[in-house]
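Example 3.2
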Amino acid sequence: MSSVTGVDYIAYVAARGRLIEDALETALPAADRPPQILHQAMRYCVLGGGKRLRPLLVVASAEACGGDPQAVLPVACAVELIHAYSLIHDDLPAMDDSDTRHGRPTCHIAFGEAIAILAGDALHALAFNLIARASPACGPERVLGASREIATAIGTEGMVGGQVLDLLGEGRTFPESSPRQPLGPMAEFVQAIHVRKTAALIRASVRAGAMLCGAESGILEALSAYGERMGLAYQIIDDVLDVVGDERVLGKRAGSDAAKATYPGAFGVVGSREIAARLTEEAVAAIRPLGVRGTLLQELARSLLAREH
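Structure, written as tokens:
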């Protein structure tokens, strides 16, 4: 792959986005298949919008390692289904109590709480069904490794654990920082949340694509560092946009995280943007060993820093 221009990058994301959308459409049960209301809710939440960041990272990291994007599509779809299930559950009244997502009513508003819970459960199950049916071209050991990677990233050490910390942080007060703890207790707590809740699955998406293509340990280590730093930067910008973003662009209620432990709460908006920029450049630097093969991933990290939704 030669150097990537802005036009090439945009064309790549559009082409791979179509590939992922078609695969998701095929993977999901038809809306008229019983139980219809459950399958309609699943499709409503998965096909109703979103940046497709995680599946794109699976595909892009696979291609950076010389792999075939078609071979990793089942796993790419799986991480998007997992992400969708987590959003359904996060939006529930018992969690964040959100009423809009992607500019539409959230799943529990559209279908009721019981169906929303079950739709999330069904997406979780379907995700691991897809991973188990990943292309034979990847090899069973690689598929098993990717499955373990993703399962760890969404369990108590990752996404679910991060959501628990997020809930525990609501309305919590923190002592001031001190010379012994210059970072400050709140900042440390916020980072602990985001490393688990957001960065873990993003890191796993990058690693899974590479693992399925047999990436050597040095490249896998570089991609791991990229995924974790980019995942943190992504969540920091999310926190910032919750404070300064336009609800019409965000597609959800702004200010919904006001009671939570967030980066703007710990560092302010300007400080948070500076941290996100530093993490993005660290992510870009981490994959320099890939040479031109990593250019698309570098472009992706930089584009996420400048996003408005």
